[in-house]
Amino acid sequence: MLKTSKPLSQALYDATEKVKKQSGDPDMWLKEFSSFLKDQLTFNNFCCQNFSDINNFDFLKEETEKGLVSVIKEVSKLSLDKMKKFRMKPDQILIDQLCNCCWVTCPFCAAVCTNTIADHSPDKHNVPFHRPSGIKGWYYKDTVELDIHFCTTLVASDERFRPHHGSDERIPYKEYQTAGEEYATWQITPDESKLIYWKWFVCRFQKQLEGHYTLKFQGRGEIPNEWRTYSKQEAIESLDEMYNL
Ligand SMILES: [Zn+2]
Ligand SMILES: [Zn+2]
């Protein structure tokens, strides 16, 4: 079983580049490819007779990727009954992997760190996509206005924040790592990336979030009109793209 298709894309790329550099043959390509994936995927039988005359490895890479991606999609549609027939149960593999993962959440947006090791210090906590900080209940002091900004945007801004509820101290977002342990252990890369899924999520669950925090997405926390244009399907597709499915 593959954890995600990310290792798959990486293995395809690495194997192809290596074989091209060393002027290898399809046999070498298959061996390299499977050795890059040995922790995630087992090939029972190698058979490269069908493409022994292939020397365009980019073509081989693209065709293999297409084939395996469709297999992953098929597997993800399997019913629970069918899953019980697997030698290693997919749900058990997931549980094993997730239980040993880092579960620390971003102090601004509550996105869960994606490091696969529970205690990975001194490596900082990291996540490829953050969320609007209003999802964690951040708001503008003395107002009911939830913060609509993604924390990746905030840490690039000249704005300031109060690191703890009720604290008088205001720290520049750009220096968030000086705001205490909870902040110092995170690496939040400043950028303008805004995953469509979270735009859709805030619109879809606006009422629930406002009710939960008894605050509002209004004023400075007004949801941009553009966010309301996305369908649930587009939101799901943005997640698929994120994981290269
Ligand atoms: Zn965040
Ligand atoms: Zn972590």
Secondary-structure blueprint:
Elements lengths: L4 H17 L4 H11 L20 H20 L3 H4 L6 H10 L51 H4 L5 E2 L9 E2 L8 H4 L11 H9 L1 H8 L18 H11 L3
Antiparallel strand pairs: 1-2
Helix pairs in contact: 1-2, 1-3, 8-10
The protein binds zinc ion (ZN) (2 copies).
Describe the structure concisely:
This protein is mainly α. The chain has helices at residues 5-21, 26-36, 57-76, 80-83, 90-99, 151-154, 181-184, 196-204, 206-213, 232-242; strands at 160-161, 171-172. One zinc ion (ZN) binds at residues 106, 108-109, 111, 130, 151, 188.
Structure notes:
The chain is an all-alpha fold and 245 residues long. It has 2 domains: 5-76, no CATH class; 133-180 and 189-242, no CATH class. Helix content is 40%, strand content 2%. It contains 10 helices and 2 strands. The chain has helices at 5-21, 26-36, 57-76, 80-83, 90-99, 151-154, 181-184, 196-204, 206-213, 232-242, and strands at residues 160-161, 171-172. The protein has a two-stranded antiparallel ribbon with strand order 1-2. Helix 1 (5-21) packs antiparallel against helix 2, helix 1 runs antiparallel to helix 3 and helix 8 (196-204) runs antiparallel to helix 10. The two termini are 14 Å apart. Residues 102, 104, 113, 115, 120, 125 line the site of one zinc ion.
